[in-house]
């Protein structure tokens, strides 16, 4: 695979991974879902058009959110006469808050992944079955040879363990 193909593949993977985050970011600035969808599409077009400017290994989320914010500004300036929109100062405040929350939730997600890896294999299997694969509790009970009630109790204990582990991890990193 050529370097250009590899760069394109990496970019597409990053863009795909960040779609939900970008949508929520845009939607936090533009309340109407249809409008947020429209701005997301415009953002994706700009990101694709400008992907050669993105430096591999740098912060894709920050770059993509900056592009999204610029697209939100362009959209709201076009629509300002037709419908009420946030002013630029309000959008900037919301944008800063969303970026802070995004970093916080990314830290929590990283801590959760680490905490899941620390679980004993049987408990990790429960988590994988229920949350990664989306299996029903009844199905898990049948597969694991347990009662439905026992699976519910096990999942509750695992969630408590993971919650405590995440809180402790973030506290140790000064983020909690």
TrEMBL record:
Pfam families: Sigma70_r2 (PF04542), Sigma70_r4_2 (PF08281). It comes from the Bacteria. Residues 110-162 form the RNA polymerase sigma factor 70 region 4 type domain. Keywords: Sigma factor, Transcription, Transcription regulation. The keyword Glycoprotein does not apply. Residues 14-78 form the RNA polymerase sigma-70 region domain. Belongs to the sigma-70 factor family. ECF subfamily. This is Sigma-70 family RNA polymerase sigma factor. It comes from Rhodopirellula halodulae.
């Amino acid at each position: 695979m050529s370097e250009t193909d590899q760069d394109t593949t990496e970019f597409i993977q990053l863009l795909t991974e960040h779609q939900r985050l970008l949508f929520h970011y845009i939607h936090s600035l533009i309340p109407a879902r249809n409008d947020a969808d429209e701005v997301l599409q415009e953002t994706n077009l700009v990101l694709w058009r400008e992907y050669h400017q993105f430096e591999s290994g740098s912060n894709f989320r920050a770059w993509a959110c900056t592009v999204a914010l610029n697209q939100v500004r362009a959209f709201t300036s076009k629509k300002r006469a037709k419908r009420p929109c946030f002013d630029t100062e309000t959008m900037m405040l919301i944008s800063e808050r969303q970026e802070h929350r995004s970093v916080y939730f990314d830290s929590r997600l990283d801590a959760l992944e680490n905490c899941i890896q620390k679980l004993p294999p049987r408990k990790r299997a429960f988590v994988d079955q229920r949350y990664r694969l989306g299996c029903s509790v009844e199905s898990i009970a049948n597969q694991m040879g347990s009662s439905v009630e026992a699976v519910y109790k096990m999942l509750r204990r695992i969630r408590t363990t993971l919650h405590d582990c995440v809180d402790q991890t973030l506290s140790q990193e000064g983020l909690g």
